[in-house]
Write a sequence for this structure.
């Protein structure tokens, strides 16, 4: 459970912001814009000088099939959280879909191959941030977390539940293995989003990259929460060309 520190970091910094950074009225959903802009700039520098060289080496040294397998391993573990959140939201149909995906892919797919999609069980994402939203926590300030990027305060709490409480990685006994798997998960995530984030933020008509990312994120997240669809890939400029065997199917809410 030591990796909880990385996911609690956003919440701890929110508390620091509340004590030392006066809210502004410039954007109603971004009361801590001054601090957020500093973290946004910090994240860009970390990506440029740390993650981008690592990602380049990762993509050069590992052939695509191996990267797809690694990607599927982490997705397979994440689907435990997807299923749990569907059940918490009362969506038993999609919860059952995700449960069966975990069982099929963990056995017949060895956790590496997405065999469930071939059986008519498409991946359907969900998160605890949406569970909190449906429980009544509807208003939440925008926040840029170090290393993780844009989110809301509500979703930072949700991330702690999804990535710590509901993640098998947190229960790996060996600290060495746990930390190495955690770092690999960050590299995998960054590698799959890097190209699309670069496209998203390098459009010629963007004058203020920070505001563009913030407004795009908030609009998409609000749509996502209200429509019942949790598919972060489409926020990052259509990730249909990311290493993946199958595309996801939009979530249909049960009436």
């Amino acid at each position: 459970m030591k990796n909880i520190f990385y996911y609690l970091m956003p919440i701890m910094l929110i508390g620091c912001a509340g004590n030392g950074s006066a809210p502004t009225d410039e954007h109603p959903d971004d009361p801590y814009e001054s601090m957020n802009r500093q973290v946004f700039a910090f994240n860009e520098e970390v990506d440029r000088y740390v993650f981008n060289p690592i990602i380049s080496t990762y993509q050069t040294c590992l052939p695509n099939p191996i990267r797809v397998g690694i990607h599927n391993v982490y997705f397979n573990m994440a689907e435990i959280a997807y299923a749990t959140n569907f059940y918490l939201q009362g969506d038993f149909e999609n919860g059952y879909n995700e449960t069966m995906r975990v069982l099929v892919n963990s056995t017949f797919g060895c956790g590496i191959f997405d065999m469930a999609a071939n059986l008519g069980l498409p991946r359907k994402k969900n998160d605890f941030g949406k569970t909190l939203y449906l429980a009544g926590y509807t208003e939440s300030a925008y926040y840029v977390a170090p290393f993780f990027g844009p989110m809301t305060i509500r979703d930072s709490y949700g991330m702690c539940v999804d990535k710590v409480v509901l993640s098998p990685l947190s229960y790996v006994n060996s600290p060495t293995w746990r930390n190495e798997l955690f770092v690999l998960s960050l590299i995998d995530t960054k590698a799959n989003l890097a190209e699309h984030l670069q496209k998203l933020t390098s459009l010629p008509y963007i004058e203020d990259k920070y505001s563009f990312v913030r407004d795009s994120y908030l609009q998409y997240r609000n749509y996502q929460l209200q429509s019942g669809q949790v598919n972060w890939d489409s926020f990052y400029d259509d990730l249909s060309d990311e290493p993946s065997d199958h595309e996801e199917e939009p979530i249909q809410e049960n009436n």
